[in-house]
Design goal:
This protein is of the alpha/beta class. It has 9 helices and 10 strands. It has helices at about 50-55, 80-85, 105-110, 120-125, 130-140, 155-170, 185-205, 215-220, 245-250, and strands spanning about 10-20, 25-35, 40, 65-70, 70-75, 90, 175-180, 205-210, 225-230, 230-235. The chain has a 6-stranded mixed sheet with strand order 6-7-8-3-9-10, sandwiched between helices. A hairpin with a 2-residue loop joins β9 (about 225-230) and β10. The longest helix is centred in the C-terminal third of the chain and has 18 residues, at about 185-205. The radius of gyration is 19 Å and the shape is globular. The two termini are about 35 Å apart. The relative contact order is 0.17.
Length: about 260
């Protein structure tokens, strides 16, 4: 039986972020994410979850600390080196971030821009094989017949699936999903989460996902990290996420959902 430990996809060391207005969004956060892991980050609004994800791909520059992604120091990278590192990181946003007037296919094709020449990026011209790959990505999320539709003609759940196809088009090794289902009706949330789970299970992509819903957390997380006031207050398996842990994260007045077990004792 092999005792080899999984390789690290992400290592975060003593990460802090203070915004210009003085708000400390992250304070001395350290954690490790294994390759192939589905890590869910939870916490109250304003706890630092989105800031953490945006620091990993450098949409936000951290104030202090170090972030290694597949062994490369993202915090020290700039220019072309940073762009190369970002090609390994696909981002899925709460508000989809599609170009609404563009076709679904063109939105998916934009996921390959990080691997394209500057001229092709500026002209938005793509070879036939790229277009075929984009169609395959749409097929993967069940939208193979909607490539010609404008993005704003789709429902919210469909738009988020386009965003997942765009991330898949990028051929990343790491998916950063920031509240990917928060703006969707409850009936659609599992549908979208199952597509993200499939990228993790079938493609071996590491996933770091911020979530609020307890049922989604328990269903999809391999491991949990909870933030409160920018600090890690819980790290462990979903099986340890009980009513006592819930109150430690969300406050003593928070009412745990019925699906959470009471702490043993």
């Amino acid at each position: 039986m092999s005792t080899e430990r999984p390789r690290e996809a992400v290592r975060i060391e003593a990460l802090s972020k203070v915004f210009p207005n003085g708000v400390q969004a992250l304070s001395d956060v350290s954690l490790s994410v294994a390759e192939g892991e589905f890590l869910v980050v939870i916490g109250l609004s304003g706890s630092g979850k989105s800031t953490l994800l945006r620091c990993i791909n450098r949409l936000i520059d951290p104030t202090a600390g170090k972030i290694l992604v597949f062994g490369h120091d993202v915090t020290a990278a700039h220019g072309a080196a940073l762009r190369r590192l970002r090609t390994d990181m696909g981002m899925i946003f709460q508000q989809f971030n599609l170009v609404r007037r563009h076709s679904v296919l063109l939105n998916v094709l934009s996921g390959s821009l990080g691997r394209s020449s500057m001229l092709r990026s500026l002209l938005a011209r793509f070879p036939a094989e790229e277009a075929e790959r984009a169609r395959a990505c749409l097929e993967r999320v069940g939208l193979g017949d909607r490539g010609r539709s404008r993005a704003d003609a789709l429902s919210g759940g469909q738009q988020q699936r386009v965003a997942i196809a765009r991330a898949l088009m990028q051929q990343p090794r790491l998916i950063l999903a920031d509240e990917p289902v928060a703006s969707l009706d409850p009936a659609l949330r599992h549908s979208v989460m199952r597509h993200i789970e499939s990228l993790n299970r079938d493609e071996g992509m590491t996933v770091i996902c911020t979530l609020h819903d307890v049922d989604l957390i328990q269903r999809y997380a391999h491991r949990l990290v909870a933030l409160r006031d920018g600090k890690v207050v819980y790290e462990g398996g979903a099986e340890g996420f009980n009513a006592e842990t819930f109150r430690a994260i969300y406050g003593e007045d928070a009412e745990p959902t019925a699906g959470l077990a009471q702490a043993p004792g």
